[in-house]
Write a structure and sequence with these properties.
The structure is a single chain. Helices cover 48% and strands 13% of the residues. The protein is an alpha/beta fold. The protein is globular and about 55 Å long.
């Protein structure tokens, strides 16, 4: 743990779901954490205390709207000012909306592209100079299997995640001769609160139990027939942030129970 006590990781969208799970793994390794994400003040304080109880050297929350460039500039600036560094950037914040392309609300398209893709462009462009100054950095973009393949009714999400995979490759090439890497992690089905709602909706609609609803949802795409564990995503990110991943850059790593192997 002590080896990471001065190492700073910024994780966006980390007050719940995948982002929180990633932050938990980094906390256990002693990282100093900066996060953003939704929540009431009491809830955010509880999350920060939780990270510290797991072993985070420090944990702060910086309020920022990831759809606004000025807020993202504040996020990067305050992380560096308050924690003294920015070593690991994990772009996790994301949103979703489903509809046929001809009915897709324009405002939803704009919002999804802004938060899922444009926000990562802004965090990266602002973080890279800080990382270059120390010739070290790890940029990890949480994409999706939908950065590699498509599904119906997810035009904006699939477009944003494919864009994130492309951005990852460009940044990796531009930084290939430095000590900075850039990779994308591409999860398949993960049991988040949002997905739990989908499971419950299937169970109610089909008049089946929870286990059968999980199987119905997951088996359509994911050959393992089981969810990817949240902790698995955190451990993969932790590996990519470490010294053993020095030569891994520009790749998009599926963690999807075989989804993209088909």
């Amino acid at each position: 743990m002590s080896g990471n006590k001065n190492t700073v990781a910024l994780i966006t969208g980390a007050t719940s779901g995948i982002g929180k799970a990633i932050a938990e793994v980094f906390a256990k390794s002693g990282y100093r954490l900066a996060i953003n994400g939704f929540g009431e003040a009491a809830q955010i304080a509880e999350v920060l205390a939780h990270f510290k109880s797991l072993g985070a050297s420090e944990a702060i929350h910086i309020d920022s709207d990831m759809s606004k460039a000025a807020d993202i500039e504040k996020l990067i600036k305050e992380t560096h000012e308050k924690l003294g560094s920015l070593d690991v950037l994990i772009n996790n914040a994301g949103i979703q909306h489903t509809d046929n392309v001809e009915n897709f609300p324009v405002e939803k398209w704009d919002q999804i592209i802004a938060i899922n893709l444009t926000a990562a462009f802004h965090t990266i462009r602002l973080a890279v100079p800080l990382m270059r100054a120390r010739n070290f950095g790890r940029i990890i973009n949480i994409a999706s299997v939908h950065g590699l393949v498509a599904s119906n009714q997810k035009a904006a999400y699939v477009a944003s995640k494919h864009g994130l995979v492309g951005l990852t490759k460009v940044v990796a090439l531009e930084l290939a001769e430095t000590g900075i890497t850039c990779n994308a992690v591409c999860p398949g089905w993960v049991l988040t609160p949002l997905v739990e709602k989908q499971v419950n909706a299937i169970a109610e609609r089909e008049k089946i139990d929870h286990a059968a609803a999980v199987h119905k949802l997951v088996s359509e795409k994911q050959p393992s027939n089981q969810f990817v564990e949240l902790s698995e995503l955190g451990e993969l990110c932790l590996f990519l942030a470490g010294p053993a991943a020095r030569s891994i850059t520009g790749v998009s790593l599926p963690i999807d129970g075989g989804w993209t192997a088909r």
